[in-house]
Amino acid sequence: xxxxxLTYGTYTHAAGEVKxxxxxxxxxxxxxxxxxxxxxxWTFSGLLVGTSQSDLTTKMSAMxxxxxxxxxxxxxxx
Length: 78
Hints:
It is built from 1 helix and 5 strands; from the N terminus they run ββββαβ. The chain has 78 residues and is an alpha+beta fold. The termini are close together.
């Protein structure tokens, strides 16, 4: 089996750079006690590696810029 790949918007992590640690699911209820929505929180961890300090700084800047965007598609392929 290959390594997992996480894509956030147009930013794609290198294969094996990120791993899924946990998925937490909870429900929010409306005023009548019915399920209004289901909320899932996915927790990831990873290791960003560069070939030099400047390469690592460039990769960090690209990742931070990508994650500053909201309402984008997230794809996790194990």
